[in-house]
Amino acid sequence: MAFDYNLDFKNLDFRSSPELYRVGKGEQGVLLVEPYKSEILPYWRFKTPEIAKESSEKIYQMFLEYLEQDDFVGADMARKFLQMGYTRSRRYANHKSGRKYEKNPQKESTKEAQLEARKNILPNEVDPVKAESAAIFKAKWMLAKTHDKYLQLLQKHKQLYEKE
After folding, report:
1. Domain segments of the chain: what residues?
2. Closest by Cα among 127, 145, 147, 154 to 82
3. Helix 148-161 and helix 49-68: axis angle, to 10°?
4. Do residues 150 and 80 make contact, with C-beta atoms less than 8 angstroms apart?
5. How far apart, in whole angstroms, are the C-alpha atoms of residue 117 and residue 128?
6. Residue 111: CB atoms within 10 Å
7. 3-state class of 121 per DSSP?
8. For 101, phi and psi rounded to 5 degrees?
9. Distance, CA of 63 to CA of 54 (rounded, Å)
10. Which pTM does this prediction carry?
11. What is the pLDDT along the chain (164 residues), one digit of tens a residue?
């Protein structure tokens, strides 16, 4: 089931209302779902491999703590932050500015203009430091997304709340 962007995220506490949470695809909702965003975001950093290692280890530890509490939403949010650590550091590894496209496709008004903007990718400028940060986050993300208890809680959450 798709992530529901129509919820009142400013006033929702997903710890007390996990039934409203939808996994969605990839990192959807990672900067919306409270109180997890506020708990995890302060530790999310990837500027250098040393910072990425410390950050990814802390977030992975939070992931494990959420699992211990059978808190699927918290664990999934930690998994999303690990994934985002990988994707963002990979983006900066490939594009020094952090921008992939000349124009932001999401700011284009028509579908055709969005598709056209996606064709204008900025050239790659490989940064080995950011690439190392990406690899560090990817390793923790893979551990999280394949963790047995996470997969069990994911299946249970989908059975209970994401029927359609």
Report:
1. 9-98+127-161
2. 145
3. 60
4. no
5. 27
6. 9
7. strand
8. -110, 155
9. 14
10. 0.85
11. 678 899 999 999 999 999 999 999 999 999 999 999 999 999 999 999 999 999 999 999 999 999 999 999 999 999 999 999 999 998 888 766 666 666 666 777 788 877 777 676 766 777 788 899 999 999 999 999 999 999 999 999 999 998 75
Calpha distance 46→43 (Å, rounded): 10
Give the three-class secondary structure for 86: helix
The distance of Cα 110 from the centroid of its chain, to the nearest Å, equals: 27
- Residues 6+ positions from 88 with CB-CB distance below 8 Å: 46, 98
Sequence length of the chain is 164
Q: For residue 124, what are the contacts with CB-CB under 8 A and spacing of at least 6?
A: 94, 95
Q: Which two tokens stand for residue 122?
A: 């900025």
